[in-house]
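Example 9 (inverse folding). The structure is encoded as follows.
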């Protein structure tokens, strides 16, 4: 899955370039084999005057990509560019990643109805999926599972099925091959909402790090002297007791329970279980979590409970604990186990 905030920033900068009278191109990684700096679905934009936003390789390939983007903007036709980063004699860059990647470069015109629909959905924070035949051909955009723009009738049924069946489970963009035709399939969803129950000292680095990693953080704590913009500048603030919050307004969220007050933690845990949670992480020893669950008439099978929350990295300080907790959130979001990379031939498997 691609991050919708990255797409929103890219399209916003594209529109700014249009207002300056510049032609623009959207660049996205469509396929990776082996190891690469970024995964399929990563996006950036370029203008004819060399302005850029985003990165696909950490700076190694962008200057070469700009040369191809210039050709795309001039010709007005998409193009695929392939890189084999293991060819050190070719690149002479000592690039750490040794995989191969394919990049699609699309010219983006203000009058193109397809990209207009994509930009509109992205700006409204809607889940959107794209299917684009590579390098040129049929293309379609879906809002959730409903088609909104493009050549819907020209897509093979197998592509439509793959696109719509995994709107909420796709973890990265992919290429589907149907009858010899290649289709780039990409899903962009709103960032996951993280309800951080507790505004204590140790919640501050968790909130900041989770926000940097793409979570939309809401701090739930009734103490207004703690739960405010001064301590949590990147978060929203729900200044109520957990049992005063409406679970219907907090559905499909990720939860961290870390109040350090057992009665409030029990109320927060009850609220989380009522809100159709995606993930519930509980700070503290397992015995405490089991006791709280027993008090509220629930058990470990009542929801997606992770206790104690965090990966085992030997964390002690509050910053180290924040890294441990957010690392588990990232692993769960990407459907990974969170194990070490040591010994793997491919980083992104």
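The amino acid assigned to each position is listed next.
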């Amino acid at each position: 899955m691609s991050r919708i905030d990255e797409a929103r920033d890219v399209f916003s900068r594209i529109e700014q370039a249009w207002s300056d009278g510049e032609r623009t191109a959207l660049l996205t990684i469509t396929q990776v084999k082996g190891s690469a700096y970024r995964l399929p679905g990563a996006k950036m934009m370029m203008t004819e005057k060399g302005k850029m936003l985003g990165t696909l390789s950490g700076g190694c390939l962008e200057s070469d990509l700009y040369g191809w983007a210039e050709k795309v903007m001039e010709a007005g036709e998409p193009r695929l560019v392939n890189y084999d980063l293991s060819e050190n004699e070719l690149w002479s860059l000592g690039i750490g990643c040794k995989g191969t990647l394919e990049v699609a470069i699309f010219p983006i015109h203000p009058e193109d109805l397809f990209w207009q629909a994509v930009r509109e959905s992205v700006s409204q924070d809607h889940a959107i999926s794209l299917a684009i035949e590579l390098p040129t051909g049929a293309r379609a955009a879906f809002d959730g599972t409903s088609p909104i723009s493009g050549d819907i009738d020209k897509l093979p049924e197998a592509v439509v099925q793959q696109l719509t069946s995994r709107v909420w489970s796709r973890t990265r963009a992919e290429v589907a091959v149907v009858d010899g035709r290649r289709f780039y399939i990409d899903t962009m969803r709103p960032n996951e909402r993280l309800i951080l129950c507790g505004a204590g000292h140790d919640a501050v680095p968790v909130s900041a790090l989770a926000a940097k990693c793409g979570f939309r953080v809401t701090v739930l704590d009734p103490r207004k002297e703690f739960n405010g913009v001064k301590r949590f500048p990147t978060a929203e603030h729900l200044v109520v007791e957990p049992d005063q919050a409406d679970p219907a307004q907090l559905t499909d969220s990720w939860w961290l329970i870390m109040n350090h007050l057992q009665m409030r933690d029990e109320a927060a845990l009850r609220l989380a279980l009522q809100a159709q949670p995606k993930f519930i992480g509980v700070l503290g020893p397992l015995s405490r979590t089991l006791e709280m669950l027993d008090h509220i008439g629930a058990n470990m099978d009542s929801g997606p409970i992770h206790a104690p929350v965090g990966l085992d990295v030997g964390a002690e300080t509050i910053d180290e604990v924040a890294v441990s907790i957010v690392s588990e959130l990232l692993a769960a979001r990407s459907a990974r186990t969170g194990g070490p990379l040591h010994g793997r031939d491919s980083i992104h498997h």
